[in-house]
Amino acid sequence: MKEKSRVFGNNLRFYLGKKGMQPKEFAEKLGYPEYEVQKMMDARLFLDRQEQEQIAEALDLPLDTLYQALEDQLYENAGCFECRGEFSTSENKKIILDLFDVYCDVQEVLVEEGLKPST
């Protein structure tokens, strides 16, 4: 599931860049807070089918396109985190990215619970 969400998030970042649209502008267009669009691009906000279709429509793309992985170089050029640096195997890449996701989730909970100041 996480891998599909990463592809969706990376593609959202890629296609926004391709259209010259900033996340803030896209968020306003859809009625989302910018923070939620950032979380979508980081594969940390899960959307239902209707929300996914709304995003694809706003990008003027078929929904399937947002789930089709592109070449790593395209993602790297778009500024996607996961493509910075190389991994010895695809399994190592998945494990490391899953650990990073858990770390981000923990940091977010700490902020929400007032145990860590927000930045």
Estimate percent helicity.
Answer: 55-70%
Q: What structural category do the secondary elements indicate? A: mainly alpha
Order of helices and strands, N to C?
A: HHHHHH
- Tally of alpha and pi helices: 6
The strand count comes to 0
Q: How many angstroms separate the termini?
A: 29 Å
* Average pLDDT reading: 85
The largest β sheet comes out as: none
Tell me the Rg in angstroms: 15 Å
Give the CA-based shape.
globular
Residue stretches low in confidence (pLDDT < 50, at least 5 long) are: none
Proportion of residues in β-strands: under 5%
What's the quick description here?
This protein has helices at 2-18, 23-30, 34-41, 49-58, 72-78, 90-112. The chain is mainly alpha-helical and 119 residues long. α1 packs across α5 (72-78).
What does this structure look like?
With 119 residues, this protein is an all-alpha fold. Helices cover 61% and strands 0% of the residues. It has six helices and no strands. α2 packs across α3 (34-41). The longest helix has 23 residues, at 90-112. It is globular and about 40 Å long. The mean pLDDT is 85.
